Amino acid sequence: KRLIDDLRNAVVQKQFVLHYQPIVSLKTGAIYKAESLIRWLHPSQGFISPAVFVPIAEKTGLIIQIGDWVFKEAARQIKHWREKYHSSFQLSINISPIQFQNDDMNHVGWLNYLRNLGVPAHSIVLEITEGLLLDKSVVVSEKFIDFHGEGMQVAIDDFGTGYSSLSYLKTFEIDYLKIDQSFVRNLTHDSHDMIVCEAIVGMAHKLGMKVIAEGIETPEQRDLLAAAGCDYGQGYLFARPLPAMEFEQFLVGSL
Ligand code: G
Ligand code: G
Ligand code: MN
Ligand code: NA
């Protein structure tokens, strides 16, 4: 109850920051992408993980305002990085299914915001989960079609863990599949995981999608995923999610 009041207050006072984790090309090592991950800087408790407060935000509806802040912050950041470092830099944001399913999510406002900033829609990647695309409701498909129609890209987060149905791949145009960390963790010890990763890459490429592997912590995992044909990698081996300034230093160091 206390945390709910604090979260309401946090929205008003904007006690959030975005951290950024690089997404690395497994073919060239180049970094032209990153995922943004929200952090709450609580005035007395310090950083609180989104794993703790996002579920509360979803239950209370505060996720709409928080998600709006995330989108605008990410858009301003990617504008800056595209101008400063690389004109095709892309930033992913995580979207809760509750946002997509809610009529209050002002998705037309988001597209206008990008237009006014002068940021092309394809510089933003929306990370959504498989479950959302099994929702056949009009509120979901309408937003999806509007976003994608403007050129915004879509990634399936935690791919392979959600639902066994792949039917949504026929209905929605997806740009990236993100292989869940659970397939990467034991890659060097479990040949089944390698077979699953190769199968995901094979299917994705035939359907015109790129693959990002998450949770890469060792050079061996990176090399196996590269051998499996995986396009991009993300994980502590390269960098943890970093504050904007540290992310820029990492980027400059990698050039
Ligand atoms: O970085 P990590 O522990 O910090 O993230 C924990 C979880 O919180 C992940 O499942 C991630 O997708 C989710 N998450 C991180 N940032 C955001 C955000 O901006 N919006 C939403 N809805 N979820 C987020
Ligand atoms: O659900 P989503 O995939 O958006 O969340 C990614 C989560 O994984 C975040 O909490 C992020 O901080 C965390 N993460 C990123 N890289 C690694 C890694 O290499 N190892 C582990 N264990 N977690 C990671
Ligand atoms: Mn994610
Ligand atoms: Na994930």
Description:
By secondary structure, this protein is an alpha/beta fold. It has one domain: EAL domain (TIM Barrel), CATH 3.20.20. 47% of the residues lie in helices and 22% in strands. The protein contains twelve helices and ten strands. An eight-stranded mixed beta barrel has the order 1-2-4-5-6-7-8-9, surrounded by five helices. The longest helix is centred in the N-terminal third of the chain and has 22 residues, at 63-84. The mean pLDDT is 95. The structure holds guanosine-5'-monophosphate (G) (2 copies), manganese (II) ion and sodium ion. Sodium ion (NA) binds next to strand 6.
Task: Give the proportion of residues in helices.
Answer: 40-55%
Average pLDDT reading: 95
Residue share in β-strands: 15-25%
Please indicate the count of domains.
Answer: 1
Instruction: Indicate the CATH topology.
Output: TIM Barrel
Please give the oligomerization state of what you see: single chain
Q: By CATH's scheme, which homologous superfamily applies?
A: EAL domain
Order of the strands making up the biggest sheet = 1-2-4-5-6-7-8-9
Compute the number of strand runs: 10
Number of helices: 12
Looking at the overall shape, the CATH architecture is: Alpha-Beta Barrel
Please write the CATH class name: Alpha Beta
Radius of gyration: 18 Å
Which structural class fits the helix and strand makeup?
alpha/beta
Determine the N-to-C terminus distance: 47 Å
Taking pLDDT < 50 over at least 5 consecutive residues as the criterion, the unreliable ranges are: none
Largest sheet: 8 strands, mixed, barrel
The best one-word shape is globular
Order of helices and strands: HEEEHHEHHEHHEHEHHEHEEH
- Bound chemical compounds: guanosine-5'-monophosphate, manganese (II) ion, sodium ion
Domain EAL: 1-255
Protein name: EAL domain-containing protein
Organism: Crenobacter oryzisoli
